[in-house]
Amino acid sequence: MNVYRHDFYYYCIIQRKIMVAKKFVYINDTFVEEAQASILVSDLSIHRGYGIFDFFKTINGKPIFLQDHLERFYHSAASMHLKVIQTPIELENILTEMRERNQIPDSGIKITLTGGYSSDGYTLPESPNLIITQNPLHLSLDFNPAGISVVTYPYQRQLSEMKTLDYSMAIWLQPYIKESNSDDVLYHNNGSVKEVPRANFFIVTKDDEVVTAKTNVLSGVIRKNIFKLENTGLKITERDFTLDELRNAKEAFITSTTKHISPVLKVDGKSVGDGKAGKTSAHLSSQLLERVRQEL
After folding, report:
1. Are 2-136 and 148-295 equal in CATH topology?
2. What is the largest CA-CA distance in the chain?
3. What whole-number distance in Å separates Cα of residue 226 and Cα of residue 245?
4. Using CB atoms within 10 A of its CB, is residue 278 exposed (0-12), middle (13-18) or buried (19+)?
5. Nearest to residue 259, comparing CAs of 209, 219, 218, 220?
């Protein structure tokens, strides 16, 4: 009997660990275990790469800038002719339940809306597929002066004001980025600087004007909150600027959900300014972190 009790005790521990380790995914109207999650191959996201998504982070279980992300998600969906069945409040409730089920305090949550099941692999159906996933995401919120380097490439992302699933060019360019000893690629179109595939791009001019591109770029949530910062003592401008202005800038940085503000120290192998993280980038990073703390 003692042997059986011993075995049963450890069996219960193992089962409990298995239960705790389960991770849930939301598909359309239900939660399923991640290992059981699937969609049909007739979905337009598979046939044509058609769909949109948004991605936000949680810190200590608290979503950061969630309303901004939901606003952009619904805007992208409407612009892509995809109907979200859930209201924003209903979707927010689903996201709350997901966090409660998965219990991943620091995470990235991705909300994907695919094109849906198409009878001919081309025609847009009435019902898209909603997929929500959550994964651990451990980020340092502190400003990292080590920064990154980028290489430029002439390209204009199609449907640029929507957060679509199409990252084909960014993935195709990965060997080019690696050969250039860079960390990422910076798109430009006819000499006008645009964006990094997963981030917005800013420069700081010699007159201390902070500038980011205005047209044909995705309006990032961190970018949006940079404009909301108060008492920065800086002129922050949304306007198109050229590669020549970038070459003459004294600072450059990118903004994204996962990186917040990260200085760009080199472009095409040449130093930006003095090649070090600048005071303006660090100052804005500090201001942004205070705004994140308000969310927490």
Report:
1. no
2. 82
3. 21
4. buried
5. 220
pTM for the model: 0.90
Domain ranges, ordered by start, for the chain: 2-136, 148-295
Query: How would you label 178-191 residue by residue, b for 16+ Cβ within 10 Å and e otherwise?
Result: eebebbbbbbbbee
Confidence at residue 268, expressed as pLDDT on a 0 to 100 scale: 98
**DSSP letters spanning 174-243:** HHHHHHTT-SEEEEEETTEE-EETTEEEEEE-TT-EEEE--SSS---HHHHHHHH--S--SEEEE---BH
SS3 call for 82: coil
Give residue 295's pLDDT: 84
Q: pLDDT tens for residues 9-44?
A: 444 444 444 445 699 999 999 999 999 999 999 999
CATH of 2-136, one of 3.30.470.10, 3.40.50.2020, 3.90.45.10, 3.30.450.20: 3.30.470.10
**pLDDT confidence tier of residue 140, bands split at 50, 70 and 90:** confident
Residues 148-295: name the CATH superfamily.
D-amino Acid Aminotransferase, subunit A, domain 2 (3.20.10.10)
- Measured from the Cβ of residue 77, the count of other Cβ atoms closer than 10 Å reads 22
Q: In this structure, what are the phi and psi dihedrals at residue 6, rounded to the nearest 5 degrees?
A: -60, -45
Tokens in use for 147?
A: 């920064």
Summary mean pLDDT of the chain: 93
8-state DSSP, 124: P
Under DSSP, the state recorded for 36 is G
Cβ atoms of 195 and 217 within 8 Å: the answer is: yes
| Residue found by looking up tokens 């109907």 in the block | 83
